[in-house]
Amino acid sequence: MTETVAVLGTGIIGAPVARNLSKAGFAVRAWNRTAAKAEALSEHGVEVAGNAAEAVEGARVVITVLTDGQTVLESIRAAAPAAGTIWVQLSTVGDAVEELVEYADEQGLVFVDAPVQGTRQPAEQGQLIVLAAGAADVRETVQPLFDAIGKRTLWVGEDGRTGAASRLKLVLNTWVIALTHGVGEALALAEGLGVDPRHFVDVVTGGPMDNGYFQAKSAAILNDDYTTAFSVDNAEKDARLVLAAAARAGVRMDAVEAGRARFARASEAGHGDEDMAAGYFASFTDRI
After folding, report:
1. Which of 12, 2, 61, 60 is nearest to 34 (CA)?
2. What are the pLDDT digits (tens) for 275-285?
3. Which of 23, 151, 169, 217 is catalytic?
4. Average pLDDT over the chain, rounded to an integer
5. What pTM does this model have?
6. Sign of CA dihedral 172, 178, 179, 180
7. Catalytic-residue membership of 169
8. Cα Dmax for the chain
């Protein structure tokens, strides 16, 4: 009999995670706070639960894919998985991982810290990179799940309770923030100076400064297409998580603080739900 996997959270990442697990042959039961976002999954063989507790009933593994640490904690408390359940935590939560570990210990849950690198398209294609920390005796159980949703898994620790994978995710997000605003500000300056922005892209393309992320975000801005792969508001949240962790570590993060402010300005201008490339609009005071 196929063991049931519960997925709590069916947003931009959670929905394709549930679909890809179902496609790989797992029995998937999903729940989302906004029920309408989960309903379409039934067409892909996913059982849609009416509440979090129903979703996790009898599940060997529970996966959380939600906005932030507080939401994850509220949802897992509402779900109340049985002691011994493996809890795979995919969300980006920063220092809040400590509270999640504390809850897992209190409830006898086996905690696997496993944030993912990647946004909408990699998630839909099952090409996420899973950053994982967890005990050796649960890896045999969770690795097939990771193989279904990602192109590779990087195991960074043997105890999910240390938060090692969540800390690595903060480091990676620091780089993503820098890349996003680097592209956005360069194209904004080009517009301000009357430079053809496509000349800038042409010079970078194929050279040492080029990368897939540059191509994707520059194309979004040049084509005025901000279809959300990862939203401005979520990027601003992630910047705050980086800053909080850095402050605790005594590390100054000037670029991330500036990047957080840019995302906030873009959100105030009405771009919060758009792709994080829309941080571009923070450069124009007359559009705020």
Report:
1. 12
2. 999 999 999 97
3. 169
4. 97
5. 0.95
6. positive
7. yes
8. 64
